[in-house]
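Q: Here's a chain of 379 amino acids. Please give me its 3D structure as tokens.
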Amino acid sequence: MTNIEWLSQFLNIQVQTSQFDDLSDAGGYSGSMRRLVVNRGLPDEKSFVLKKTKPGTEGFSATLGLAREGYFYARLAKDFPEGFLPKVHKVYANMLTGEKTMLMEDLRGAIQTGYFFGPYSPHNWGKDLAALTAPAPGVTFKTILEEVCQLAGKMHARFWMKKDLLDSTWLRGVDWIVGKGKEGWLEGQMKAKESWCQRNKEGAGGVRWSKEMAELLEASFNKISWEDFQVRLQGDPWTFVHGDYHPANMMWKTTLKEDSEHNLVLLDWEGIGVGCGAQDLGQYFISHLSPKDRREVEEEAVKSYYDSLIKSGVDGASYSFDKCRWDVVHGGVERWVWLIGIMTNMGIPDQPMQYFHDQLEAFVLDHHITPTNVGMPRL
């Protein structure tokens, strides 16, 4: 069967021609994305996005379980509101080999939300942000942030302490919640710690690591303990978490269907799992927001997230605002400690690494996180 015949059969339309357009600036470290455009012999065209594991990164993908994104679309996506995530028409995923292939809705015309956060983040360096955001006049990073907090609250409330979520054993962290998976957890922690230790051995290169940050990361990595981790899990509520919640993994639709309540679409579900919901928000704050902008909006953003949680069904008596605030701060810091540990051995250039160091340092100083009160890294 030819590609044209296969596409015609699969899409249930008569395809005359097809072509791929490169989307090389999307897909992340281990994913490749291309736009598939098919023509039915009519003036109109139909397009999709094809996301696949990059050749040569299958081992990396298998180690981190990144093929779970395909499992998510096949098994859990139905539990999310319409428009919350892109439609996926075809999925193949293999957790053992790390391979995945997904034929997805093309969000052409939507805008990656990171572009609204200005040139501060390395994700936006060298981009014509005014042109990229022009189709959404009046939308600012504050507009985006309000919807981000509202949707995070709804998503986390939807799965709050929902025990049948633990049946999805392919989700990151499910085993840990029930006291299993120690070996894999330690392997993930040691990978980040060893990368950090190797950086100390070889030197910082062109990154200026402050004494305070070096001591903080060292203290956090030295606190890695499966037993202490289990104690924390038993005392904290858990839910479904995105795991890579930042503006570049979200799109802003410039036009809405009549039945849609929001413009935001969430992408990149490779890091999903079960854990601390507020941690997603903490990771978001540190990723793109300049310290100045973050300080201006952080408190109201946390309140917006918490209000959405409670409005969506979480019991405020058992999960207070103060606890939520603590989880945002410590979850964000400790997640980024693990991420920076991993990133030190990924060949990331000095300038972006300096940016992430400075982002985490500013957040740590603002919230008085020290080597004494920092927790262990969070996978």
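Q: Can you summarize the key feature?
A: The beta strands are 17-22, 31-39, 45-53, 88-94, 99-105, 111-112, 239-241, 250-252, 264-266, 273-275.
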